[in-house]
Amino acid sequence: MKDLDKNRPRILFLELSQEKRFPVDFSTYYHTHLYCHQGSISFLFNNTEMKCKGGEFLFWFAESHLKDLEFSRAFKATILLIEKDFLNQNIPDQSWSIDAILHSRQYPIKQLNDKSDRKRVLSNFKWLHDKFQDREHRFYEEVLKLQMRLFILDMWHTFANEYERRKRTLQSGSLYERFVHLVQEHCMAEREVRFYASLLSVTPKYLNFVCKQNSGATASEWIQRYTKERIIVFLQNKNLNISEIADKMMFSSRSFFTRYVKMVLGITPTEYRSRLE
């Protein structure tokens, strides 16, 4: 293992095996993109046991609740580590960013359907790393940022079918699953249980009960959780000012948005952004 010093590279491209492991503290500073060639890697993700096997893709956000990494004897993988602020600052401003981020927070392991998908993923790893290394390019920063955005868009494209398939499963599922789908669709503007209860033709009290029985969290807590995720994504995008975020999320005023953020994050939007510096 090697330590990542204060002059951390924005992008690291590595080949891993049972003998060659992740850099120290990689999950603190980097978003991890991993393609498993063979063998497997097991881990606890948000206290849930998971295993990524040969032919699968794995994505971890920086600062994920990750522990107990174990590698099989035959494990081999290619990984691309991208410094968290660099990636966050170059996410294309599209609705897909919200869907992709929320999906990956729940389902870090993704299926690759065929050889062309595997080739696309590994090619994207190489292209981004090559651009990062090409420091003699006259327009180095501009080209690197464009390649970062192309990388993200291509990864979204690769896993679009999986995102859509999970959405359809939620749409046709149980009352709880349909509620979760509705929250994902509407929490940018609707943050009251009664709105979702009305769409599902149940009372707010019953909806809270069903959610608590299925997940251990009430409907109110789920709404707040999804809204909080969106707020964090927007606050990490420094191309948006706080008033613009408040407008996007349909808050009546910046001051009301600030009070809501203080309630769910424990700090104001301005304080949150100052901690990103």
Please, could you describe this protein's structure?
This protein has helices spanning 26-29, 84-88, 95-106, 115-133, 140-158, 160-171, 175-186, 193-199, 204-215, 219-236, 242-248, 254-265, 269-276, and strands at residues 11-17, 30-38, 40-45, 48-53, 56-60, 66-71, 76-83, 109-111. The chain is α+β, with helices and mostly antiparallel strands and 277 residues long. The protein folds into two domains: 11-165, Sandwich (Jelly Rolls), CATH 2.60.120; 173-276, Orthogonal Bundle (Arc Repressor Mutant, subunit A). β3 and β4 (48-53) form a beta hairpin. α7 (175-186) runs parallel beside α10 (219-236).
Q: Give the count of helical stretches.
A: 13
Q: What's the number of structural domains? A: 2
Number of strands: 8
Which spans of ≥5 residues are poorly predicted at pLDDT below 50?
1-5
Written as H for each helix and E for each strand, in order along the chain, the element string is EHEEEEEEHHEHHHHHHHHHH
The CATH class of the largest domain is Mainly Beta
Q: Tell me the Rg in angstroms.
A: 20 Å
Strand content: 15-25%
Strands ordered across the widest β-sheet: 1-7-2-5-8
Per CATH, the architecture of the largest domain is Sandwich
Tell me the span between the first and last alpha carbons.
28 Å
CATH topology of the largest domain: Jelly Rolls
Proportion of helical residues: 40-55%
Structural class: alpha+beta
Mean of residue pLDDT values: 88
